[in-house]
Design goal:
By secondary structure, this protein is of the alpha/beta class. It is built from 8 helices and 6 strands; from the N terminus they run E-H-E-H-E-H-E-H-H-E-H-E-H-H. Strand 1, helix 1 and strand 2 form a beta-alpha-beta unit. The longest helix has 17 residues.
């Protein structure tokens, strides 16, 4: 049985923080590959065109053979939900033990996800701690345990692991804001991604 991790998100744009999280998952958990899955229509966000976010992901991950980018959501109609993504990928990758990489903030909302109670036991959850809020490891673990208790009340079991990563105070929203006002985003994103953003005039009034 192979061990694969899904890293889903808007990635608008992908940045070094995302890459550090994925690399930490590879190093700390027995997984063979990280599958990056950009959301076509994320349920709670407005995002740049899917083709641009997909292209930036491909540029950022191309030099790591343990990273692969999936366009599984490309032809999906309606809102992108995690359980649909996992179901579709399970068809493409049978006989797989699944892991899902997610930030602590997002993990806290899992009990309220669309069919979240059904999704929770279908994979192991790899949790990236957050910088905003300043939680230490013990506090982050407590938050994860609280999510587990909420799901247990709904008769669901869940397995989670807290990733140990350097906390980088960078976010996609910060990068978009900086770029929009003409500030440098060098060293916040891979250079190929920075060039792509400039070439396609993303995050500006003249964006494609």
């Amino acid at each position: 049985m192979q061990h694969l991790a899904i890293f889903g998100g808007t990635f608008d744009p992908i940045h070094w923080g995302h890459l550090l999280i994925a690399e930490a998952a590879l190093q700390q958990i027995s997984i063979e590959k990280v599958i990056w899955v950009p959301s076509l229509n994320p349920p709670h966000k407005k995002a740049s065109a899917f083709k641009h976010r997909l292209a930036m992901l491909q540029l950022a991950t191309q030099d790591n053979p343990a990273f692969t980018v999936s366009s599984v959501e490309k032809n999906r109609s309606g809102v992108s939900y995690a359980i649909n993504t996992l179901t579709d990928l399970s068809v493409c990758f049978p006989n797989t033990h699944w892991y899902w990489i997610v930030g602590l903030d997002t993990f806290q909302t899992l009990p309220r996800w669309y069919r979240g109670q059904e999704l929770a036991p279908m994979c192991d959850w790899l949790i990236a701690p957050r910088l905003v809020g300043g939680e230490n490891i013990a506090q982050s673990e407590l938050i994860c345990k609280q999510v587990k208790q909420q799901l247990r009340k709904q008769s669901n079991t869940i397995h989670w692991h807290l990733l140990h990563i350097p906390l980088v105070g960078v976010s996609s929203s910060l990068i978009r804001k900086l770029y929009r006002v003409g500030k440098s985003i060098r060293y916040l994103v891979p250079e190929d991604v920075r060039s792509y953003i400039a070439d396609h005039k993303l995050y500006s009034e003249d964006s494609e």
